[in-house]
UniProtKB/TrEMBL annotation:
This is DUF1080 domain-containing protein. Residues 1-21 form the signal peptide. GO terms for molecular function: hydrolase activity. Transmembrane segments: none annotated.
Length: 352
């Protein structure tokens, strides 16, 4: 007879697998079980801590289990989530059966469905720890648009979007109410063309904006090839990238690309829905004379990662492109096709 606890675990795993399998490509449909049930955030307490010292007065400990390749992971121990706190420890781990295992000198860590446990030396003293899986999520998931807002995507159609050349959107419309990038790079020989960036049919200047998104695991990819897309206001890019467990640099999630790194890396693990809530203020002109650059405030998963930042140049890889003048006219909002099958949902904008 199956115990009640075992039955709950089986049902939970089935629900997790079902929730993560929505998509049109193998990035979403062929997912390792460890990436579904072991990868992600953990939180708990230090055990057998010294009678005095840092661990005694700061008993909370957090962890990130980050996929770095097929069957490969990095485990970060840190004092808090959502802060730029110095790592307590970071080490490489491997999947062994159903368990992620790390053995590194004084450090020994096991990650299983029951949680994350281990021990290591901190300040010259051995400390043990026990943590449980935690989904940090976002307080603005499912946020409703204010009265008078323009619903840019509600999961039912692409009526508010088009490709740059005026084509109807060729991205995938999923049954669960999301859209998914259908990349031009993966459909090079298609006639008529499939994929490419998409643009709102309406143009904007000042606005309040909400969007939900998620990226796949893609264990065979690294760096800028992992979960890459971009969100553009008048040509200025707010970066989208699988940045879970990374340093939070100027080209990672929450960054103003080539301009400003996020104040903190608030990226969630792959497969989990995340939110961008943004206030954008367009450049100010007096006739043809630029008086003020654009400014932007960006909240990622409810955490302010860019606060009233001045956009001092255009987004571009090369210096020449950054010398373009600040835009004067209203422009469409743009979502980038950068090869990865990013998903988006619940997109709306309120003109200010």
């Amino acid at each position: 007879m199956i115990s009640r606890t075992t039955l709950v675990v089986l049902i939970t795993a089935l629900l997790v697998s079902s929730a993560y399998s929505q998509g049109s490509g193998p990035e979403w449909t062929q997912i390792a079980k460890a990436d579904q049930v072991l990868m992600g955030d953990y939180q708990g307490k230090w055990l057998n801590t010294p009678t005095k010292g840092y661990l005694r007065s700061n008993p909370k400990v957090c962890a990130q289990v980050i996929n770095t390749g097929i069957g490969k992971y990095r485990i970060n121990l840190l004092p808090d989530h959502n802060r730029r706190a110095a790592l307590i420890y970071s080490g490489e781990a491997t999947l062994q059966g159903d368990t992620i295992v790390l053995e590194d000198g004084d450090w020994s860590i096991r990650v299983a469905e029951s949680g994350l446990t281990g021990s290591g030396k901190v300040g010259g003293q051995e400390a043990k720890f026990s943590l449980s899986r935690l989904r940090l999520g976002s307080p603005t998931l499912g946020a409703k648009p204010p009265k008078g807002s323009l619903i840019l995507f509600d999961g039912s159609n692409f009526d508010q979007w088009e490709h740059e050349d005026g084509r109807a959107v060729t991205w995938a419309l999923l049954e669960d109410g999301a859209m998914e990038v259908n990349s031009r790079f993966k459909n090079k020989s298609s006639t008529p063309p499939i994929g490419g960036d998409i643009y709102t049919k309406q143009s904007f200047k000042d606005l309040r904006f909400h969007m939900e998104f998620r990226y796949p695991v893609e264990p065979e990819q690294q760096g800028q090839l992992r979960g890459n897309s971009g969100l553009f206001f008048q040509g200025y890019e707010v970066q989208i990238l699988n940045s879970y467990g990374l340093d939070g640099l100027w080209n990672e999630l929450g960054a103003l690309y080539k301009l400003s790194p996020p104040k903190v890396n608030a990226a969630r693990p792959p497969l989990e829905w995340q939110t961008y809530d943004i206030i954008y203020r367009a450049p100010r002109y007096d006739g043809n004379q630029l008086k003020e650059n654009a400014r932007i405030t960006v909240s990622l998963n409810g955490i302010v990662v860019q606060r009233d930042e001045e956009l001092i140049h255009q987004t571009a890889n090369g210096q020449l492109g950054r010398n373009k003048p600040a835009p004067k006219e209203a422009m469409p909002i743009r979502l980038q096709d950068h090869i990865n099958r990013i998903q988006f949902r619940n997109i709306w904008a309120e003109e200010l």
